[in-house]
Amino acid sequence: MFGSQKAVEREQERVKSAGAWIIHPYSDFRFYWDFTMLLFMVGNLIVIPVGITFFKDETTAPWIVFNVVSDTFFLVDLVLNFRTGIVIEDNTEILLDPEKIKKRYLRTWFLVDFVSSIPVDYIFLIVEKGIDSEVYKTARALRIVRFTKILSLLRLLRLSRLIRYIHQWEEIFHMTYDLASAVMRICNLISMMLLLCHWDGCLQFLVPMLQDFPSNCWVSINNMVNHSWSELYSFALFKAMSHMLCIGYGRQAPESMTDIWLTMLSMIVGATCYAMFIGHATALIQSLDSSRRQYQEKYKQVEQYMSFHKLPADFRQKIHDYYEHRYQGKMFDEDSILGELNGPLREEIVNFNCRKLVASMPLFANADPNFVTAMLTKLKFEVFQPGDYIIREGTVGKKMYFIQHGVVSVLTKGNKEMKLSDGSYFGGRAGWLQQGPRAGCPAAEGLLPAQRSACLRGAGYFIQHGVVSVLTKGNKEMKLSDGSYFGEICLLTRGRRTASVRADTYCRLYSLSVDNFNEVLEEYPMMRRAFETVAIDRLDRIGKKNSILLHKVQHDLSSGVFNNQENAIIQEIVKYDREMAQQAELGQRVGLFPPPPPPQVTSAIATLQQAVAMSFCPQVARPLVGPLALGSPRLLRRAAPGPAPAASPRAGPVLPARRLSRASRPLSASQPSLPHGAPGPGPATSVRPASSSTPRLGPAPAARASGPSPDRRDSASPSAAGGLDPLDSARSRLSSNL
C-alpha cells in the first residue's frame, strides 16, 4: 500500500499526531472489526426476515439475546465511525483529522446507520410492561415494524472498505491462483442470488400473513396455515425460486390478486438476477483466459485468410503448426506490456524470461552481467519449423540468432579443387560403377584441345602429359543446439552470409538486429573480440576463412589491447562453442537405427607426390583383377568400356582389391590435397614394382576374371602375370617414381 517501511512509519506518526483514539482505516483493528460486522450483518439479513415472517413469539431468550448483541455491535460501530479515518480519491489520500471525519460522516451515512441501529426490540419490551395484554395483541399488526431491520442492508454501502479488502484478496489470488480467484467471484455471485431468493420466499408468506391468510391465498388453498415454520419456509422458497427462474408457478398458479402481483414481482426480480448472472459469468469466463480468447479470435482471421486465398492443405497445416508452437494457445501484446513498465522492472522481467537461454549459453555465463542485460533487452523472440532456412548463404545479413531450444544445421556449399599432373589417372570410378555418375569433374588445364575433348563420361584416363583439376561439389555441415548462436559473422564483417542455416527441429530463437548488435558491442569491446574469435573458429571448422576477421584479431593480439585474463575468457568461450557443436552433432547421429558403415575405398589416384584414394564410393560388385599392366607414365590412351571376357581355366588365383583402413585412408578427390612435403595420412603400403615395358592399356577397367590377355604385350608384364589390381599398379608406379 505505502511502498516501503519508511512510508508505513510515517503514516503511523500521522495517526499518533492526529489525536487520541483515531483509527487508521488500514489498521489491523479496523480490518478485524469490519470482518466481525460483516458476520453480524449477514446473520441479520438471514435471520431477521425469517423471525419476522414465520415466528409468532418474539420474546424468547435466544431471540432477545440475538437482537441485543446485534444492536449493541451496530451502536458501537456507529460510534467508531466518528473516529475512523476516511479514504479519499482512490487511496491517494487518507483523512485523519477528527473534525473533518465527523463532518463528512454526518453528511453521508450517519442517518442510514442510525435508523438501522435503533433497538426496536427493546422499545417493544418496555412498552409491553405498561400496556394491557389485549391491547398488545391488537398491536400484532405492528410486527411489520420489525422488518425495518432489513434497513441494515444499507450498511453494506458503508462497507466499501471491506469490499476493497476482498478485491485486494481477489487480486492476490489472481496473481498466484487464477482458479481460486474465479471460484471466489462465482461464490459471491451465487451467494447474492441465494440471498435474493431467501428474501423473496419470506415475502411470499409475509404478505398473506399480514392479510390474515385469505381463503384464496396459496397458504389457505393448501391448508398450511398451522404447519411448522420449516414446511412453510420450504414451500415459500420453492414458490419464489420457481418464479425467479421462470420455470413455473410452484404447486399451483396464483389465484388472488395479491399472489398475482407477488408472482410478477418475483419474475421481474428473477429475470433481472438471471441477466446479471449471465453477464457476470460471461465477463468472468472471458477475464479468466483473455489471452486464449484473443488467440482464438486471431486464428479465426487466419483461417478465413487461408480460405479466401485457397491455400493448399499442406500450407494450412504448416501455418497451424507454426501458430501452435509460436503462441502456444495464448497471445499477448508483449511490446505494449513491457513498454508501460519502467526500465529496471522491464530488465528484471526480460532476465527472468530469458533465464534458460542465459543458463545454457557459455557466452553469457562468462560475460559481464551488464552486457547480458543490454543484449537481452534488445532480443526478439522467433520460432522456426523443421526444414526452414533461417539464413541463406550469399544473402545480406541483418540479424544474428541465439538458440533457446532446438537444433540447427550450418551448411556451406563450395567447389573443392585438387590438381593432378603427369603420371596420375582419373575417371576410374565411373567405369567401375558401370556408367555411374562422376565423383569429380576433371577440367583439363594443360592438355591440347583434342585431348581435352576426349574427357568423356564412361571411361578411365591416364595422364601422359598435362595438368587437370578435379573439382568436387559437396556440402559441409555443422550442428548447433541449445545455448549456441549464429549469424554473427556478416554482422561483424558487414558482408554477406558465409553459410546457410537450416532448422532441423522446432527452434525457439531470439534474434538481434545489426544496429542493436553494433550498439551493444561498441560499449563492450572484449565481447566483440569474443564474437570475432568464435567466428574465425567456426569458419575454420567449415573450411572457410575471412581475412577481415583474421586481421582484426591479429591486430588485437599484437597490440595487447586485452590482458591475459580477458584472453583466457575468450578462449574459454571458443572452447565451449566447439564442445556444444560436437554435442549437437553427436545427438543428431544417435537414432533408432545404427549409422551406415563407412564407404569402402575402391579406387586410387597416383601422383608424383602422393596417392589419393577416392572416398564416398560404394563397394564394387566384384574385385578388379586381370592382366592390367601400367606402361609408361608419359603415354595417354583412352580405353573404351566393354563386356568382360569369360574366365580362363589357366587363370591364377584371384587377388581381391586391397582396401585401406579408415584411420590410414588417404585424402579423397573431394578433399584438398596435401602440400608438397606434408606427411601422408597413413603409413605407406608396400607394393610390387610394375613393369614399364607395356606400351598401351588393356581393356577398360571393368570387373573381369583373371586370365591371359589377348594382347601378348600386356600378358608379358609381371603385373599381368600376377593378376595385380589397379590399386597395386598405381602404388607400384608411385614407388618407382619416388
From TrEMBL:
One of its GO terms (cellular component) is HCN channel complex. Signal peptide: none annotated. SMART domains: cNMP. One of its GO terms (biological process) is regulation of membrane depolarization. The chain crosses the membrane at residues 31-55, 61-80, 262-285. Keywords: cAMP, cAMP-binding, Cell membrane, Ion channel, Ion transport, Ligand-gated ion channel, Membrane, Nucleotide-binding, Potassium, Potassium channel, Potassium transport, Sodium, Sodium channel, Sodium transport, Transmembrane, Transmembrane helix, Transport, Voltage-gated channel. Gene3D superfamilies: 1.10.287.70, Helix hairpin bin, Jelly Rolls. It is a multi-pass membrane protein. GO terms for molecular function: cAMP binding; sodium channel activity; voltage-gated potassium channel activity. Its main location: membrane. It comes from the Eukaryota. Residues 363-529 form the Cyclic nucleotide-binding domain. It catalyses: K(+)(in) = K(+)(out); Na(+)(in) = Na(+)(out). It is found in: Cell membrane. Residues 660-675, 695-709 have a biased composition (Low complexity). Residues 660-738 are annotated as: Disordered. Belongs to the potassium channel HCN family. This is Potassium/sodium hyperpolarization-activated cyclic nucleotide-gated channel 2. It comes from Sciurus carolinensis.
